[in-house]
Amino acid sequence: MPELMQFLFSGVTVGAVYALVALGFTIIYNASDVVNFAQGEFAMLGGMIAVFAVSAGMPLPLAAVVAIIVTGLIGIGLNKLAIEPARGAPVVSLIIITIGAAIFIKGATKLIFDKQLHRLPAFSGDTPIQLMGATILPQSLWVIAGAIGVFIGLWLFFTRTLIGRAVLATSNNRLAAQLVGINIKWVMTLAFSLSAAIGALAGVLITPITLTSYDVGIALALKGFAAAMLGGMGNPKGALVGGIVLGLLEAMTAGYISSQYKDAAAFIVILMVLFFMPQGLFGLKSTDRV
Amino acid sequence: MINKTLTTKALTGILALGLAGTTMAEIRIGSTLSETGPASFLGDPEAKTLRMLVDEVNAAGGINGEQIDLIMYDDAGDPNRARTFATRLIEDDEVVAIIGGTTTGTTLAIMPMVDEAEIPFISMAGAIQIIDPVQPFTFKTPHTDRMACARIFDDMQARGITTIGMISGTGGFGSSMRDQCLDIVGDYGIEVVADERYGGQDADMTPQLTNIRGKDGIQAILNPGFGQGPAIVTRNYSQLGIDLPLYQSHGVASQGFIDLAGPEAAEGVRLPGTALLVGDQLDDNDPQKSVVLDYSAAYEAEYGMPVTTFGGYAHDAFRLLVDAIERAGSTESQDIRDAIEATDGLVGTTGIYTMSPEDHLGLDISAFRMLEIRDGGWMLAD
Question: What is the ipTM score, two decimals?
């Protein structure tokens, strides 16, 4: 029983990390159908900027805010400099642009900061919380709370606000959205800045657990992408559930089958799910009117 | 067009003059290191160390009165580039010896080139394949994984540990060391009852550690790995409150590891490391003490950052070469090679080197010091 609890705690911790990154994919995807592969770099930037702000003497909360704002501005820059000029290009080209941007951000971070690994201090100390014979770190609770908080925020944003609906409308039909008076350029800028900010928040929250360096972005983006696909791309609920399920799958495989095959087992389950439910667990079936 | 030709001719002329000037009384030493790229945390301190030492030797009058001309290229960890640069060093720069090969990959790419050209080559990479079987012109300075395993198992034996669990990274370093350790563990009467793995970017290893802890009669945990993995394993080990001895590998023997894992979590962790980490704790009559302290002081004064084990490998490679040229009294590649092979008792930062035709590393496992982390710093464990 304590073993099972420990595997559950591990799975939820890792799952919440994946979910936070996966949630960052949703806004840009909903605004433009683009899967932003620079999303992992936003998380890396959040962590790295916070680390260097703290080492420059800033208190942790202020450093976190600075990291989120700066990364948000970088997100806007990415949209203005790389995505907007290629406005007419097909979605696949835009996705490739985001991959290029990811490589660029990674290289620039290496030059501006350094090549070392870094860690942020845990927000509420490192004393593990004991529960039913298993332990969980307070920082894991921060990550889980962060994932749930971002999920609720996004859900309210897309269902309860006019701007959120405008974002959905833009993705649904650009021309029609423009005709009813939605400023598409502005919606895209908003989408990139919010996604970048969510990515940075994820980076700040997870760095005390996962550590960070200039090159962690790709691995984060891939796991987050897998989680988002499993849950259903574009749906905040899918990102949250997909992330947690992926984390639990890995932890249970490592715990009960073999740590050698935990990544493989997780991906086999994802493939199976996508085979029977191509839209993911919570993805909406898209209906195109002819 | 005419202008261009003229410029080219003029440039060639200047180059020729320059070359003529340098060949007068200079020893040309070549180097190709991974100063940038994924192995830059190894290559960067190596390059800094070589530059510093060459300046030092030249300022003191050179080797046997001849100045050293160091020609250095950056292969960025790419074996193809390393091969190209090795060719350039041999054919265009006409160096008498090469120090380089930051990684096992680049070293293996350089080895056939130096063998054919018969130029002595000292590598700073870890793998045992570099010196086993022995290639006549290739030498190396760092310990092998196998020796690290042997040193750890020695220490376990001394503490009466017979049943252990292993948790290894899936990266090149972790996998290779895991294989070497499993290969020799039987010789020490130690049984591995758990063999867990983790990926290089994993965020939590508590499931693996929980399983290892649950094994009957388990007495210690060994973690071969590199990068953030060992730091996370150490943090998880402390989170779970496991009170078994935890052994890490020489791959994380740096202050950075203690900072990442946190001093509380890392308290009591043991690993095999070089004398460089504990220079001031060495016994006063330890022959390595002055070498290690001199190198640390010079490096810190020059670059304002602490020395690393990897820079120490470059220090030892350079000292081996200088010592060999001095003894050979010649700058012919063949004479230098023979002199390196005859190295006897050269004190470096990694250990004391005694080469032979059968041994092109020249270290034994006594050069590995068993270190323990105490109060956020390194202590000699024995």
Answer: 0.86
